[in-house]
Amino acid sequence: MSSKRIERDSLGEVPVPSNAYYGAQTQRAVDNFPISGRTFPRRFIRSLGIVKKSCCLANEELDLLDVARAEWIAAAAQEVIDGQLDDQFPIDVFQTGSGTSSNMNANEVISNRAIDLMGGELGSKDPVHPNDHVNMGQSSNDVIPTAIHVAGATAIQEDLLPALAHLHGALRAKAEAFDSIVKSGRTHLMDATPIRLGQEFSGYAAQIEKSIVRAESARDALLELALGGTAVGTGINRPLDFPKRAIAHIRAETGLDFEEAANHFEAQGARDGVVEAHGQLKTIAASLMKIANDIRWLSSGPRTGFAEIRLPEIQPGSSIMPGKVNPVLCEAVTMVCAQVMGNDVAVNVGGASGNFELNVFLPVMAINLLDSIQLLAGASTAFTDKCVAGIEANEARCLETVERNLAICTSLAPVIGYDEAATLSKIAFKENKSIREVALERGSLDAEELDKLLDFRAMTEPM
Asked: Which domain covers residue 31, as residue numbers?
């Protein structure tokens, strides 16, 4: 049985593992919220460390923290940033709605680690107190919203945007490579006038290009920080210049243009920025789902489906049907998109759950925001590397579908009229013939005129 030390808070004594850097309030939260077994991800813990280090440096600049304490608090916070103390953040994400438990978790870990670095006794709160020193000028009510924004914005910048750029490049390359290949268009899942396979892929590339803009917008929606509002937005117990100085350090640490919230009451009572950001992520998910589903359908077969493209064969597809290969990356991407859309519901409910001066759904909004960013980034990268980059066109199949396509009669309509063109289509379908064959049989047009009008490439562009 591991040894314990006794820590104390305003409610009394709490046994804590003797070697833990966290303290009484963290242990109470661990005991009180044995709900999901899910703790905050690395991104969020890193952001908490960034916020605490930045606040420490601001307090030192304002002569509120002496150099010695500030040095060790900053060093301990840096270890949190670097991931060296992740095992010291054991609290379930389903906890107090303000995230107070996690803010105090950070305060206790940084306090005790600083004491340890200074050669002191864990749990003594001397010479570094978790509230008086580490949490100086702060409240959970502005720290946790700030950490959410920092975590979300940096995750978008560092993970999602590069992944989307990678996918965009691959789709654009396929659009260029497939530009000369004409195939059947489809509307309502039915045959439509011809389109070039490259044009089809250019639409997918454009969707991801727009997704990049949306991801940048999502990032920018998170750049206003609540830090400085303290308990209810009034800024009680912090110096006037504190948020300005602390946020300057956050900017330096992250390279992003964070700024103090224009209105601290909005920044703490609401989480509209997170709702807006996640709305953009949901739109990106919708784009990815459309692209993945289209690619899945275009590759269906290999003999009895559309089979207009071939996907890389990356794993066997059946435990009973030998040789079967499935579009597994497309399926994985669509499941990710469904999860992101579900996450959006939780974020929307959370955003609507601000009560007066504080939103009380902060942890669940944080995990869903970060989960969606991670899922979209990971899915985009895997989809690019394992699927899109290796797509090949089945040119013979594409040409075959165009020649048999009844909708090519559309190019004849300006010459022979809509009604005659429709008659050709109906006869061709009934007799299982091509439009070309029926038009020649009926004498609607001669062979030379038909060859000119049934130029499939010409059909893919304006007259």
From this structure: 20-136
